[in-house]
């Protein structure tokens, strides 16, 4: 994943590291302090910022929280995190050249009425509700679906309050059958989430999971990174309400799960 012409960070001299820290400190957007970071993590943010800005000047437009998310996704390994981040910047320029995706580009997926946003969990993470049984694969539809995923992720991220970086997902699989099975779409969504929106998923609740889905799950599971696996909860039907209420207050829970909020289509959020 190394960029051509990239110089290994491990070869930096002590004086180069000092210079990098000084440059990054000067370039930090607004001189912000990244809350919740240890001194060691803050130093790595500074070093990584200095490095990626030399490789891609557009890095100056992102805040230190994004730099930190990529670092955490790679266990604070600066080289791996930098390669991942630079790949993200290249992908974004290609996949979202205008900076955003319009509803007209994803009309078919929006028409399936399968993603909603509403409420927040007890930690302030905005909630996205996904109805997998409403997704139907179609020939040539993978690229639009990927754009729909990015559109939805951007929508839920835009609802995050200050100081919050993660969202929660309720994945409702009621009615899911083989006609809904779309492994390529699942893997495409997983790649986008893990590679381009790292450290954004806080928790994923899977509801009404049918037994036949487990065959697909066995195919997808090996592609899920360890950090993401820890955030996935298969909820038993008889414990659904009590499990959701552990993380989500009744006032913030969608009506269909015994709460008080109506669902809002993702395009209207």
Give your account of this protein's structure.
The chain has helices spanning 14-27, 39-55, 64-73, 78-95, 107-111, 142-158, 183-196, 213-220, 226-229, 240-247; strands at residues 115-120, 126-131, 167-172, 201-207, 232-234, 264-265. With 269 residues, the chain is an alpha/beta fold. A six-stranded mixed β-sheet has the order 5-4-3-2-1-6, covered by helices on one side. Helix 6 (142-158) links the parallel strand 2 (126-131) and strand 3. The chain is globular. It starts with 13 loop residues before the first helix and ends with a strand.
- Summarize the amount of helix as a percent range: 40-55%
SSE pattern: HHHHHEEHEHEHHEHE
Structural class designation: alpha/beta
What share of the residues does DSSP label as strand, in percent? 5-15%
Rg from alpha-carbon coordinates: 20 Å
β-strand number: 6
| Unreliable stretches covering 5 or more consecutive residues | 1-32
Q: Can you summarize the main beta sheet?
A: 6 strands, mixed
| SS summary, helix count | 10
TL;DR?
With 269 residues, the chain is an alpha/beta fold. The protein has 10 helices and 6 strands, in the order αααααββαβαβααβαβ.
Features:
single chain, 269 residues, alpha/beta, 6-stranded mixed β-sheet, 11% strand
């Amino acid at each position: 994943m190394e960029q051509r012409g990239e110089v290994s960070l491990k070869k930096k001299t002590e004086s180069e590291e000092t210079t990098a820290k000084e440059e990054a400190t000067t370039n930090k957007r607004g001189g912000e302090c990244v809350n919740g970071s240890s001194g060691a993590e803050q130093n790595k943010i500074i070093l990584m910022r200095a490095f990626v800005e030399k490789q891609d000047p557009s890095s100056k437009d992102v805040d230190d929280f994004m730099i930190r998310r990529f670092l955490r996704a790679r266990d604070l390994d600066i080289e791996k995190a930098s390669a991942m981040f630079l790949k993200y910047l290249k992908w974004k320029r290609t996949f979202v050249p205008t900076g955003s995706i319009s509803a007209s580009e994803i009309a078919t997926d929006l028409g399936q009425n399968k993603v909603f946003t509403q409420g927040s969990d007890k930690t302030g993470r905005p909630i996205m509700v996904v109805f997998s049984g409403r997704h139907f694969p179609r020939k040539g539809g993978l690229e639009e679906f990927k754009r729909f995923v990015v559109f939805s992720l951007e929508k839920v991220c835009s609802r995050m309050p200050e100081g919050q970086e993660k969202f929660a997902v309720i994945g409702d699989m009621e009615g899911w059958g083989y006609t809904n099975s779309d492994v390529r779409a699942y893997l495409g969504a997983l790649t986008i989430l893990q590679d381009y929106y790292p450290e954004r998923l806080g928790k994923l609740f899977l509801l009404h999971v049918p037994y036949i889905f487990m065959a697909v799950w066995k195919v997808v599971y090996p592609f899920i990174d360890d950090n993401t696996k820890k955030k996935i909860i298969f909820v038993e039907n008889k414990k659904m309400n009590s499990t959701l209420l552990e993380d989500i207050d009744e006032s913030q829970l969608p009506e269909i799960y015994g709460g008080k909020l109506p669902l809002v289509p993702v395009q209207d959020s």
